[in-house]
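Thread title: Can someone regenerate the structure for this chain?

I was given the following input by a collaborator and told the matching structure tokens would be attached. They weren't. Posting the sequence so someone can regenerate them.
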Amino acid sequence: MKIGMSHGAGGEVMQSLISDIILKNITNKQVNGGVSLDDLDDGATIPLNDYEIVVSTDGHTIDPLFFPGGDIGRISIAGTVNDIAVMGAKPLAITNAMIIREGFPADDLETIVKSMDEVCNETGVSIITGDTKVMEQGKLDQMVVVTTGIGLVKKGEVKRDSGLKVGDKIILSGSVGDHGMALMAYREGFGFETDLKSDVAPVWGIAEAALKIGGVTAMKDPTRGGIANALNEIAEKSGVGLMLDEDKIPLKEQVKAVSEMLGIDPFEVANEGKVIMGVRPELAEETLSAVRSTKYGSEAQIIGEVTEGNHVLMETSLGGKRILEAPIADPVPRVC
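Best answer:
Regenerated them for you:
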């Protein structure tokens, strides 16, 4: 087997690569009984006394580096902060490694670093250490950024993506497909005007508001593979089914238009500023109100509920039902 683009795009192909090659050949994957590499959650934990340190790392190869709504600097910090946040932890610090192609414009690098700093200031996170390397012309496509995030949560309060219970309501914090479709439309240079922008944003404010209500059972940010992949993953890990209402899932008209033109399902496209969460039914409306009061959560909706079974089902706009399957891979490559 040779590694292909689909192996890094989320979905079933990437999961097979991780299981068959990576996990199989790593022996030490857990510290102090915390969440381990085997759990394949958004991050791992290191229990220490009354707290757990939450750690997550991301490599960013997005193309292009600058896109409507953001750049590689914004997405590298926001993406890592989000992985920490959906584990229920307050993000504290980031490490940042940059591999830069020889000849890369210094002005562009400064813009990217300023974007990183902007997201850090918004979320109260510090970049505390890093590394910079330069590679020869022709050896690297512009720039790769690798970030590691560190957060803190009280012991026993980590939110796993396997915590759904039958009866829980599913809250989605906003419209889907914005990032992937904005990137695709801009990257391919389609001959039509659109004001569609990426949703890339830090979601700690959303997570924090929901956690204060006390009913959150699971959280995940639907990046590569979109909500289709994220919903199937949390349902499978929790050993439950889901029943969704298609009409409740926020979807911008611009996203619909680009998706229909390209024949791409927006439910399978990456998002970079959204949260999917399971919430106890008696606290769902209160949690929804809390999420809607945040900077990036005004479009939040309850989109379904947790059921018995092992399928993610969706009531369609036409009145029927269909299985929402996990994608093979994200149809838009190099989205983060």
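The longest helix spans residues 106-123.
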